[in-house]
UniProtKB/TrEMBL annotation:
Primary localization: membrane
Gene3D superfamilies found in the cross-reference section: 3.30.450.330, DD-peptidase/beta-lactamase superfamily, Penicillin-binding protein 2a (Domain 2)
Source superkingdom: Bacteria
Residue ranges annotated for the Penicillin-binding protein transpeptidase domain, each copy included: 258-568
Annotated Penicillin-binding protein dimerisation domain residues: 54-209
GO cellular component labels: plasma membrane
GO MF, one annotated term: carboxypeptidase activity
Assigned keywords, A-Z: Carboxypeptidase, Hydrolase, Membrane, Protease
Protein name: Stage V sporulation protein D
Entry-linked Pfam families: PBP_dimer, Transpeptidase
Gene Ontology process terms (BP): cell wall organization
Compartments it resides in: Membrane
Length: 593
């Protein structure tokens, strides 16, 4: 161009404009590289790089016979990458909506939403949407149907969901896994180390069209599935226990029920159930109070079931014999220079032998045995039987119960503790205290897990029975067993627990509940704990019914003993326990001479 034909003003203007454009471009480049360079590089890297966690399959939980109690099923999370949606894909959005049971408009909106605002390190940031969830926990059949539409932008990620096929059965033992895949209670939490497995991961880098970059091939670590856990539970017995609880609930409308069944020699728990209960598949719809394992978390005054402590201790210390006589008609007694008021019985009993004190469940008789022992020995034996400390049951937050040290006793404790007052215990503590008598005086630790095994059935960890301590001698245990066998007779308080051709030994308990700081005459806890066969004990069963609704007192012999009998008869058939060769009561008279 010849400058003679361009005015100076126009030339200067064009020069300034061109220079300004270069300044703006240079400024923009400086801003992008120096000011926002780190932020933009991070966004590009996030859009290009994809890191996916691959969940491991959680192990199964089975009962002692291999019946499935908890498992894991594969489900899919389906979503869309709006950046990859093509125009022809939009017309198929209603089909996707129909398969997933969604509103077509909702699917269209997610197909079109390509940007979103998120909170970044330096404030709000606008990012590309590379994943918008359409549906969660979709079964494999629905997932395959969606994938058959061949919409490249729509894809799914497999994950696992916990499933409890028997629903409420053994719910408090199993516990549950919440929506965040965290074990909350029961075996799920206790054995999480074995069940959880090892998650894997996959990392890849792709271009804007979701094509994998060849120089950055996918890197992947395969997940390792969790191990399987075999419990000591017997599904058949567990089912029977829960059936019996349902009958009690229907008949007496109690506030709560707890039942425990275990093997005498091993301490293995064959069944444990509570009311109220819950369905671990839908745990979120259950009141929190129903999630509590009452067998190990609730405490109550055990009442007459605690009388085994004073009676066996007095026998073990050679302070009495089964024939030793006590006057149970006197309301007071002199003890170490003090006059103590004895507890009353439901009716006058007069003079009773130690054996009759147990059989007739005399409160005064138990108090007199406690006085024979004295504070220190009575407290020591209560501790030996496991009261005041956890049993060692591994699930949930087990309560210690309440057993005050001697220095905190008042003037009445020495006469009230032997009858099961001034002490609180869990059903599990009472259960294993009685189990110690059945086991020849040896207190066992409760066992709920038998072994951990892999997918090929190979045992990885095996759990063995664990004896805690010897409480009384085997001779003392036999003496007390013979007395407890008469409790389950026509002259005892638990005749409804008797089983034909089988000797049953046990003890009822009926305690008044404390309401507004006072013992209530309207609210009771009725219980029965017993074992059989008497000559060679196999099983211990405990039944605790909290506040049964019926006319009169909810005696343990009425509300709990029949439940014991029904469960025991079922166990006899299921486990093939043979009848005893002779009636144990025939041999009783010889043992007590």
């Amino acid at each position: 161009m010849n400058r003679a034909y361009v005015s100076g003003i126009r030339f200067a203007f064009l020069t300034v404009v061109i220079f300004a454009c270069f300044v703006v471009l240079l400024g923009r480049l400086v801003h992008l590289h120096l000011v926002e360079g780190e932020k933009l590089a991070r966004i590009v890297e996030q859009n290009r790089e994809r890191f996916q966690e691959i969940k491991a399959r959680r192990g199964n939980i089975v009962d002692r016979r291999g019946n499935l109690l908890a498992s894991t099923q594969a489900v899919y999370e389906i979503g869309v990458d709006p950046e990859s949606v093509q125009p022809e894909d939009m017309v198929r959005a209603p089909e996707v909506a129909s398969l997933l049971g969604l509103d077509p408009q909702e699917v269209w909106d997610k197909f079109e939403q390509r940007l979103r605002t998120v909170n970044g390190p330096n404030g709000p940031e606008i990012r590309n949407v590379r994943w918008a969830e359409l549906a969660d926990s979709v079964d494999e059949q629905t997932y395959d149907a969606v994938m058959a539409l061949k919409i490249k932008a729509v894809y799914g990620n497999r994950k696992y969901e916990r499933l409890y096929p028997s629903e409420t059965l053994a719910a408090h033992v199993l516990g549950f896994v919440n929506k965040e895949d965290s074990p909350v209670s029961g075996i799920e939490r206790f054995c999480d180390f074995y069940l959880a497995g090892q998650d894997g991961w996959r990392k890849s880098e792709k271009d804007g069209r979701r094509h994998e970059l060849s120089q950055f091939s996918s890197r992947e670590v395969e997940p390792r599935a969790g191990l399987n856990v075999e419990l000591t539970l017997d599904l058949n017995i567990q089912h029977k226990v829960e059936q019996e609880i349902a009958k009690v609930v229907e008949q007496y409308k109690p506030k709560g029920v707890a039942v425990i069944v275990s093997e005498v020699a091993t301490g293995q728990v064959l069944a444990m159930a509570n009311y109220p209960t819950f369905n671990p598949n839908t745990f979120w719809s259950t009141p929190v109070d129903n999630l509590r394992n009452r067998a190990v978390c609730d405490i109550y005054e055990p009442g007459s079931t605690f009388k085994i402590v004073a009676s066996s201790a007095a026998l073990n210390e050679d302070l009495v014999t089964p024939e030793s006589m006590y006057d149970c008609s006197k309301p007071t007694v002199e003890y170490r220079g003090r006059t103590l008021r004895l507890p009353s019985d439901s009716h006058a009993l007069g003079e009773l032998s130690v054996s009759d004190i147990v059989i007739k469940s005399s409160n005064r008789g138990a108090a007199l045995l406690g006085l024979e022992l004295g504070e220190d020995r009575l407290y020591d034996y209560a501790q030996r039987f496991g009261f005041g400390s956890p049993t060692g049951f591994p699930l949930d937050l087990e309560e210690n119960g309440i057993l005050h040290p001697v220095k905190k006793w008042d003037g009445l404790t020495i006469t009230r503790l032997p009858m099961g007052h001034a002490v609180s215990a869990t059903p599990m503590q009472v259960h294993f205290a009685m189990s110690a008598i059945a086991n020849g005086g040896v207190l066992m630790k409760p066992q709920i897990v038998r072994e951990v095994f892999d997918e090929n059935g190979n045992t990885i960890v095996q759990f063995s029975p664990d004896a805690r301590t010897r409480v009384v001698s085997s001779y003392t245990a036999t003496q007390l067993t013979n007395m407890l066998a008469k409790v389950v007779s026509k002259e005892g308080t638990a005749k409804d627990a008797a089983i034909e051709d089988y000797g049953v030994a046990g003890k009822t308990g009926t305690t008044q509940k404390i309401v507004d700081g006072r013992y209530s005459s309207q609210h009771h806890v009725g219980s029965f704990v017993g074992f059989f066969p008497q000559s060679s004990p196999r099983l211990v069963i405990t039944v605790v019914v909290d506040d049964p609704q019926l006319r009169g007192v909810g005696y343990g012999g009425v509300v709990a003993a029949p439940v014991f009998r029904n469960i025991a008869e079922h166990c006899i058939q299921h486990l093939g326990i043979p009848p005893e060769p002779e009636s144990p009561l025939m041999a009783l008279s010889e043992d007590l001479r």
